[in-house]
Each structure stands twice: as structure tokens, then as C-alpha cells.
Amino acid sequence: MKLLIIEDDPIASDYLAKALREKNFVVDQVDDGMEGLYRANNEAYDALIVDRMLPSLDGLSIIETLRKAGKDTPVMIVSALGDVDERVRGLRAGGDDYLAKPYAFAELLARLEIMVHRGSAGAAQTKLRVADLEMDLLSRSVKRAGQAIELQPREFMLLEFLMRHTGQVVTRTMLLESVWDYHFDPQTNVIDVHISRLRGKVDKGFDKPLIQTIRGAGYSLRE
Amino acid sequence: MSKGRYRYSIDLRLSLASAALTAGGVALLLSFIYWFAVSQPKDEVAYTLEEEVARLQQFYDREGLEMLIEEIGRSAAQGDADYYALSEENFDVLAGDLMNWPEGVPADDQLHSFSFLDDTGGSFPTIHHVRAWGYVLPDGRKLIVGKDVTGAQAIENKLTLALWIAGALTLVVSIGMGLVLSHNLLARVNTMNETILQILTGRSGERVPLSGRDDEFEALARHFNRMLDEKEGLVAKIREITNDIAHDLRTPLARLRRRVESVLALSMAEEEKQETLERVLGDADAILDTFNALLKIAQIESGTLRDQMETVDLDAILRAAVELYEPLAEAEGVRFELDLTPEIEVRGNKHLLAQSITNLIDNALKYASDADRIEIRTERRADGVACSVRDFGPGVPEADREKVLDRYVRLDSSRSKPGTGLGLSFVAAVVELHGAKLELLDAAPGLCVRICFPLA
Q1: Are strands B373-381 and B335-339 parallel, antiparallel or unpaired?
Q2: What 3-state DSSP class applies to B306?
Q3: Contact A154 B351 (CB under 8 A)
């Protein structure tokens, strides 16, 4: 996977690049907006990580220009401006995800993985399936090993998100965002208790535990 | 007020403008009066004369000289005009009521004026002014018709004089009044200006004095005072915030520093180092969280988010929050009881409201987990919509209810639990942003936190 980081803070850039290289990404670093736009336009990257405040050309403008030129490379926007409204602005400009600084590397990594692999699983699917766990999106029902599982609406949405990102790391923040549209941290471990309950219904008494805890990051649904 | 400093001031401009306008209006009026009382009648006289001359001239054309002379005699007695005369070419009068052709009046088919002295009747000789029209007949004889305008002339003279006097008086009075009025106006403005300047350059506690009159200047003064109050409020708030930040960040920062120092100074096993550094990360995160929360509250309080409001379904927000906390509550043996009025909408920011509600629920769970339920209710009231979160725990003593809204207070009994203590102050800031009221009520047992939203 080849990534381009457009970030003018050298410490942040170096640290991020190093951490990503350790995860086997090929990483290019650029510290100027115009140069970043040039590179992104003329070379093939699997994803871009773009800071908003850059010299010569700001992050949002870079994205808008790329989109107008027909480039749909996934872009992760990183910014000290963490408000919901700024996030909306960033996504409207064409960004695929938005992370407020400072962020945990684990969070960025999880979102990066999901962002890069987006689009392969079509949204038009009506059924999701992992091992012997089946979810029917039309009838809003879940079965495992042929047995029906009763889920409350939010539990269903949580499981759906996990299943749509099978094998990928899903952070608590992501779950709050996608299932509740909350863009703040409730400070307590509410999500953990939800997952615990979900496990009780989906994993307990069955063959293999599918919902796994990824230490320091979040959860993942995988065989 | 020195005239020099305000040479082009509103004072002078206002009075000049007012004088000009008044003068203009009055001039118009006077012109009309002149036209109506003087010009018009003059024109009528000319018209009459012209008509008479034309009549006589036609008569002569039809009937001849003898009949004309007779007609003139008749007209002199009963005609529309006052004086009639027919003369030979050499101006010797043949007929009519004029003895002699008036001196200096040519018969040129135009309007002329002449005067004569009449000493025939009464004790004093009187002057008569006549407007006359002279005409030359084809055979050289001359015709003249005149109208006595003595009276009219006298009126005209008097009127013209009166109009000029009126005009002059008006000008003087209007300038004078203009000066007086604008001076009056300006005096108030100048007093306000001076007071405001004083306040801005140092005496910040003072306010613009109110005169008690109920007019625009009073409103201006009141609004200005309000702005000054707000400004002082903001200044105090900034001071408060910086103090809070200093206070609450110093402790965890010091702790973080100690931990880093220990890793550097002490000989630790790898595992212990790892653990310490993880704690350091935790400290840093806690500091950042506090900082962000403070910043957010400051942002909310400064009103910058006031223009991002929309119509929000309160029902949905409450249900979503309850669904988030439900498993946690259940694990602690607490259930939610919802008493929600359907279709309640308020005008607000859905993200801030969502966070506020979760704060309240979080608090209720934290401080009242011994109880078995939390009640969440919405209701319509006369003055708007009320939303309350009520727990059945120990409650908050009355004396402390004001304090809990302050940034950092967490009542002693709860120091063991995690959290920044900013929860309620966040809610307070959001409530104020929405123009709503926050109430902490003794539910006996428990605490009821109620938000009263105004009518949308």
C-alpha cells in the first residue's frame, strides 16, 4: 500500500510515517500544499493523509482540486480543527474521513484500513455473512448456525457495522459515530458494555467467538 | 462646545438644512399667494381690456364712426371697463369719459399704465392708477380702454411688502429654531460621547447616565450600557477561564512530568517502563480532554455557535441517549423510565444537545447508582418545553446547587469516580446558548435536572 502524507509539522510527519512503515506501508512525505497536490495528481497512491493547515495551499483546496480533476483517491483529513462542523466541511470538500488532532495512532490506522478498502463490499448487499453468522438486512434478522438471534435495534446496527468491516479494526469512536451519530467521547466505557452484551447473544454458546477485542484500538469481527 | 472644533458638525448642517427647507417651503407658499392675489387679477384686467377693445373695434367695422361714438358713450356709463375714449389721429378726444388722451400712452395694441389726479370730488385730490389698452383704428383714429386699478395697486403694494417681511421673518425664525433644536440634540449626543470616552479610557465601572426620558437617546444609552455590561462579563469570563485552565491542568501536568522523570531517573524493568509510559499517555489524554472541554465550553459561552441552530427532534435525541446507556445502567441495576410527550421539537444544535443529555444521564448513573431507576420526561408547558432527568439518589444539598454548575466542583462524596467534573458546566453553557433555563431541583429523593426550552 502506497501512502502520501501532506503535513508541514516535521515531527508529526516523521512519527506518522515511521509508525505506518512499521505496518508495512510505503510512505511518501511532503511538507508543502502545492507540492502535495502535484504529487497526488501525478503519482498513484492508495490513500492520502492530508493536514488542513499547510503552506502555499490548504488541505481542503487540495482535495477539491483533486476531485475536480477526477481523482478519487481516498483522503484522510487530519486537523487541529476538531468541531463537528469542521468535519462536515472536510467531508463536503471531498474527504473520505476526518480525524481531529491529537489522535491515537491506532485510531488512524483502523480508519485508514477501512477507508482504503471501502467500495469493495457494495452497499447494495442485502445479506451479510461471516462464518456461520448471517444477517438479513431486509428483514432485519440475524441467525447463527441456523438459530435466530433476537437483537434490539441498536445492537443490530452495531453488529451490522462490525460485519460490514469484517477483519478490520473498528474503534469505539467509529461505533459512536456510525450507530449514534455522536461526535464526542462520553468518557465512560458505554460501548464496551454494548459489545459485551452483543457477545452474550452472538458468541456465547456458539462454536467460535467472532467478536474480538483488539487491545489499544477497539474491536474486530473475524473468524 | 467650541464652534471651531465642530465647524462642520451636524449642529450647523442640521440648522442650515432646516432653514433651507423651511425657507424653500415658505417661498413656495408666498409665491402662490402672490400669484393668486396679485398676478391673477392683473391678468384678468388685461384680458378684460383686450376684450373690450376688440368688441369696439369690431363694432366700428360693422357700424361705422357715428355708431361707435354712441357706443363709447354707452360703454363709458355701463361697460366692463372704467374709462373709454375715442380720439382723432392727433389725440384730440372725440368721445368717452376722458378729457384728454393720457400722456405717454401710445396706441400700440399693448397694455400700458398711467395715473391722474382727481380733484373733482371731496376735499382731497386723489391719485388714480389706470391700466389701459390703446388701439389704432384703420382710419387713424385712436381707441383707448382703461380699468381703474388704484385699489388693486394699493393692495398689491401692501401685499408685496407683507410677503417680503413674512419671508424675512420666516428665514430668521427658522434659522434660529434650527439652531436651538439641533443644539439641544447635539448637547445630549455630546454628553454621551464624553461619558463613553471616559468609560473607554479608564473608568470602566461607570455607565452612561439615563435621563428617564423615554426616547431614542435613552434607548441608545441603555443599549450602550448593556454592551458595556456584556464586555465586562466577557472579560471576567476570560479571567475565570484562564484561572480554571491553570488550576486544572497544572496537577495532571505535574503528575505526567513526575512519571517521565521517574522513567529517566530510576532504573526500571522494561515492563515497568512500558507501564509508566502508558500511564503518561493516559495523563496526556486526560489533559487534552480537559482542555478541549474547557475550550468547547468557552466557545459555547461566547455565542459563536448561535447561528447553527436547526429544528431538532428532542424525542429522538433522548431515546438515542437512553439506548446508549441502557446496557451500562442494566449492569448497575438501574432502569430507565421514559415519559415522553410525542413530537416535541426545539430549535437548537443537535450535537450539543445530544452531548448534554448524555452528560446528565452519565451524572445520574454516577451519583445515584444505588437507586433503581432514572426518570426521563418531556412535557409541554405554557412557556415552552421542559425536559428533565431525575435520579433517585442522595440528591444535591440546596447550598451546593449553584456551585455544581461551576467548572470544577464535584461534591466531595464523589471524588473517587473518573471524569473531569465539567459535565454540568457544559450543560449549563449549552442551555444558555439555546436561550433555555437550567434548573436543579430537589426531587426528594434525588436530584431532578430540568431544562426549560422557550417556545420555538
Answers
A1: parallel
A2: coil
A3: no
- Given a contact cutoff of 8 angstroms between Cβ atoms, the answer to whether B94 and B86 are in contact is yes
Distance between CA atoms of A169 and A197, rounded to whole angstroms? Answer: 19
Q: Whole-angstrom Cα distance, residue B217 to residue B277?
A: 65
The B142-148 sheet, strands edge to edge = B93-96, B83-87, B142-148, B126-136, B111-118
Residue A74 CB contacts under 8 Å (≥ 6 apart), including other chains = A46, A47, A48, A96, A115, A116, A118
Cβ of A129 under 8 Å from any chain B Cβ?
no
Strands A47-51 and A75-79: parallel
Lookup: cell for B334: 438501574
Of residues B289, B362, B420, nearest to A188 (C-beta): B362
List of residues 6+ apart from B115 with CB closer than 8 A = B127, B128, B129, B130
Residue B191 is placed in which grid cell? 454628553
Please name the helix (run of DSSP H) or strand (run of DSSP E) that holds residue B409, with its range, or none.
none
Sorted by sequence, the CB contacts under 8 Å of residue A75 that are 6+ apart come out as: A47, A48, A49, A50, A63, A66, A94, A95, A96, A97
- Model-level pTM greater than 0.90? no
Contact A72, A47 (CB under 8 A): no
CA gyration radius for chain A?
19
What are the backbone angles phi and psi of residue B406, rounded to the nearest 5°? -65, 160
- The predicted model gives B387-406 an average pLDDT of 78
Count of Cβ atoms closer than 10 Å to residue B294 Cβ: 21
Contact B328 A193 (CB under 8 A): yes
CA distance B274 to B278: 6
Over residues B443-450, the mean pLDDT reads 87
Closest-CA distance, A180 to chain B, in angstroms, reads 7
Task: Give how far B331 is from chain A: nearest CA, Å.
Answer: 8
Does residue B445 have a cis bond before it (omega within 30 degrees)?
A: yes
Q: How far is CA B239 from each of CA B235, B244, B298, rounded to the nearest angstrom?
A: 6, 9, 12
Burial class of residue B40 (count of CB atoms within 10 Å of its CB; 0-12, 13-18, 19+) = exposed
Residue of B nearest to A84 (CA): B351
pLDDT tens for B153-202 read 888 888 889 888 988 888 888 778 777 877 787 888 888 888 888 888 88
Q: How many A×B Cβ pairs under 8 Å? A: 48
Residue A63: per-residue pLDDT: 95
Instruction: Dump pLDDT digits (tens) for B402-439.
Output: 666 654 444 433 333 445 567 788 898 899 889 899 98
Question: What residue type is B393 in one-letter code?
Answer: G
Cβ neighbours of A177 in B, within 8 Å: none
Q: What is the ipTM of this complex?
A: 0.85
